[in-house]
Amino acid sequence: MAETVFSAFKEAAARDVAADFLAGPSEGASLCYGAALVEIEKLARRYGDAGYGHGHRVALLLENRSAFLLLWLALNSLGIAVVPINSYYRRRELTHLLSHSGVTLAVVLGESLEVVQAANNFVAVMDVDGDEIPPSKTTPPFSSDANRESLCGLLYTSGTTGEPKGCLLSNDYYLRMGHWYLSQGGLCTLNPGKERLLTPLPLYHMNAMACSFMAMVMSGGCLIQLDRFHPATWWDDVAGSGATIIHYLGIMPAILLQLEVCGAEQGHRVRFGFGANVDPVHHAAFEARFGFPLIEAWAMTETGAGACIAANQEPRHLGTRCFGRPKSCEVKIVDENGDEVATGEDGEILVRHNAAAPRTGFFSGYYGDELASEQSWQGGWFHTGDVAREGPDGSLHFVDRRKNVIRRSGENIAGLEVESVIMELDWVAQVAVIAAPDELRGEEVMACIVPRSGAQRDEAFALQVSDWCLENLSYYKAPGWVAFRETLPVTVTQKIQKAELQMLGRDPAALANCFDLRDRKRT
Question: How confident is the model at residue 1 (pLDDT cuts 50, 70, 90)?
Answer without folding.
Answer: confident
